[in-house]
Amino acid sequence: MQKLETMLARIQQILDQDPPRAEAAQRCQASARTLAQRFPLVHRSVTAGGPRLSEILAARKLIAKAACTAREVDCGIERVVYFFLGCGAFPEGVVAFLANAAILETNPATYTPFDTGSLEKHTCLREVDASWNGPEKDAFLANYLGFGNEAVPFASEYVAAHFDRPSDYVRRQQRSEPDFPVYHGLVSTSGDRRAWSIEIQLHDDLGLEARHLEAIILGEPDLLADIPDELMESVVVAETEGSITATIHRIIAPEPIV
Amino acid sequence: MNNALPVLDATIIGAMTPPDSKAPFNRASVVVKSADGRIIQVRAYTTEGKVEGPSIGEDDWRVLVATEQAVALPGPASLVSGAALWVLRPNLARRERALQDLRAGGVLLHEHLTGSGDAWLCLVDESRDAASSLRDRWCREAVNGGKMLARAGQWPRAQAEAEVAQAVSRGLDPEVLALLVLTYEGCGRDLRAKGILTMAGRSRGEDFARQVRDCLVLLRHELSAPVGAVLAPLRLRPAAAWKRTARDVADRGNTQALQGLSSERTAA
Hints:
The complex is a heterodimer.
Chain A: H1 4-16, H2 19-27, H3 29-37, E1 41-45, H4 53-59, E2 61-62, E3 65-66, H5 70-74, E4 79-85, E5 95-99, E6 109-112, E7 123-125, H6 134-143, E8 146-147, H7 151-162, H8 167-171, E9 186-188, E10 199-202, E11 206-207, E12 213-218, E13 235-237, H9 244-252
Parallel strand pairs in A: 12-13
Antiparallel strand pairs in A: 1-4, 1-5, 2-11, 3-4, 4-10, 5-12, 6-8, 6-10, 7-9
Helix pairs in contact in A: 1-7, 2-7, 3-7
Chain B: E1 2-6, E2 10-15, E3 25-34, E4 39-41, E5 44-45, E6 50-56, H1 58-66, E7 71-78, E8 83-88, H2 95-104, E9 113-114, E10 120-125, H3 129-151, H4 155-168, H5 174-186, H6 190-204, H7 206-224, H8 242-251, H9 255-267
Antiparallel strand pairs in B: 1-6, 2-3, 2-7, 3-4, 3-8, 4-6, 5-6, 8-10, 9-10
Helix pairs in contact in B: 3-4, 3-5, 4-5, 5-6, 5-7, 6-7, 7-9, 8-9
């Protein structure tokens, strides 16, 4: 697992080789920092094979499951609840939980500037001749895995280094790329944003208490009936199930931030 | 990712709704299968006679049904443009009559099926105006029923009617939400009542939240007036119509209600 200084040094190395990009990063650094400070952790739920909303609410927690890949287990991640930081990069599920990033201060967690699951078969390296098999993927994950409590400071520098307008990190479409090539060199084979969106791996259950939640976004108003009284004021009802991602992005970055 | 299929090539195999729910009514998008085996969750019907929506793998569909996130029909049903599944649950007031309404309105595509927990699964053609009209009528009846029960101080029953109104309502409706708030307060569920008001603003913006609060003031006034008193009807209205409604109330000498509206506006 890598410390923040090591993670940021790699970004700085890329910026040092590209002065116009470094200038662009410098220009939006302050606004990227402000934006990242309000990034929530976004977990889309009620997907195929996952628990139903009524089950989640009965347990009053998002229950950590076994990590998706052995590669993560090898990095010390045994149980996990997956989130994306500051964006709705996972496109499925009729409910989205937006948790306060402050939970990263007190809960064991890690982060990566990509979807760990996508290493398996949905991504490759931009450098076409590079070998990309099990050992290389294992090393890649170990090299880009950071401590969860450092995810937000990392995000502000990462966003500044990759976007002309920081809010574009939040608002980019499912199939999209940053304005500048991703510093780690991973690209999605289908152009999916999960190859560059920051994933948080929370290593424990997350209790669904109002103090942890910025919002619960429902794709259907009839799901209101399932919401317990004490969580009702966290609820946002999206216009349609298809607009959950847009609703997430509206909450995080209602206006473009330059 | 979205995919498309011609309506004529597809049959309905199920819908995206859990077999049971606390809600008395659910509206669910149907899941269709093409002759070549592709499965799509219908998000939209196009004017070119196609359905659009995210594709679902055969295995994923089985998992969705097995984990009770979707219901499968016992056999495939023919698809028409506008088809959706309406689930009438046992806690839906006037459920038998609602089913008769669907039949009489000519919007029921097939005879209903009985699902888990005695839910009635009704494939409905939402492209017909009658389908929307029926939901609006059921909503109106539930609102009126809820108000009548609230006036009589029968708060749990009033709350049940308000929840029916919310479930059958096509989207968030300020008057329905106001009735929910009032009945939750009546049942001593102040936290939920407050939560509904917050949810309204967060979901549709401050103008919408103001409409809910205005409706609440008018509703309180209406319910506090003597039985048989002639009052301005409580109607859903756009924010721009607020002044006119306030004037109507004032013209009838309902100064208390007007003061309530004014203070709400000031607070907002």
